[in-house]
Amino acid sequence: MRHQVQSLQAQLAQYRDEGGLPNYRELFERSADANLIIDGDTFVDCNEATVKMHRYDTREELLQSHPSELSPEYQPDGRLSYEKANDMMAIAFAQGSHRFEWMHQRADGEVFPVEVLLTSVPDGDRVVLHVVWREITERMAVALEAYQRAHPLRQGMSREELRSRLQERLPGLGGRLFNQVIALAVHQGAVAQNETSVWTGGHVVR
User: Fold this and answer.
1) Which residues pair with 77 in a beta bridge?
2) What is the pLDDT of residues 44-66, one digit of tens each?
3) How far apart are CA 128 and CA 70, in angstroms?
4) Angle at the Cα of 43 from the Cα atoms of 2 and 185, rounded to 5 degrees
5) Of all residues in the chain, what percent carry a pLDDT higher than 70?
6) Burial 127-166 (b: 16+ CB within 10 A, else e)
């Protein structure tokens, strides 16, 4: 694995030296979203946003793991993360791209939901996966803040409406995962809820 990491890093350095792919590399590094490269079933590169998202100290530490090792043992549907991760990657290789929802785990053990986009990219005589991760809790906060600006006299958005809005972008967001997203956001203090509604933690009815 270490050889693979060094090999891809050497290729990227060669691309830069030869004037190839400067825009791609700059976007990769500067993106606020977590960006990674998977070769086979191994992470071989990532940007700083990925390291921060998972609270690792260095890229090297994060890259020394199988994709499923950044996840809890099981996903919300009951499947083993290791097995499901391999299936998701196989779909992306077969179809060219694949978008889905996933529960990840930070270095400190905190579990959190993300939207994953896998895109297969030809690289010489092989195909690698370009990966983008976006935290679902951030999307939820944006939806709630927009709703609260439009309806300042209401305590919050109904759970069903919030789920419906999120599913417009995340069609795979089932009830179990949605409940886990809400529970995590409440635990973090990002949102509050009652039996029927959800609102951002600092929202005050005016």
Assistant:
1) none
2) 899 999 999 999 999 999 988 77
3) 19
4) 135
5) 85
6) ebbbbbbbbbbebbbebbeebbeeeeeeebbebeebbebb
